[in-house]
TrEMBL record:
Origin superkingdom: Bacteria
The species this protein was found in: Brevibacillus fulvus
UniProt-recorded name of the protein: Phosphatase
Length: 73
């Protein structure tokens, strides 16, 4: 049985969501790809391989705004 991983990103002004979805059924994978196309999500990655463990590390740096930057729209 082959394992596939579908990776895609959805973003708007308020949030960004990264999805990694495993599939073992090629028919369900095809349906998922069709749904992405219906949502106009055309950038995605498809990986064929073994089940692996992953760790996501995110770093965010926050800086105070200067007076000038705060008044700008």
């Amino acid at each position: 049985m082959e394992q596939y991983y579908l990776i895609y990103q959805e973003a708007n002004d308020e949030e960004c969501l990264l999805t990694v979805q495993p599939y073992t059924d090629e028919q369900k994978l095809a349906e998922a790809l069709n749904q992405l196309e219906a949502q106009n999500i055309t950038d995605y990655t498809l990986i064929k391989g073994k089940k692996m463990k992953a760790t996501l590390k995110v770093a965010v740096e926050l800086h105070e705004l200067e007076e000038e930057e705060q008044s700008s729209p």
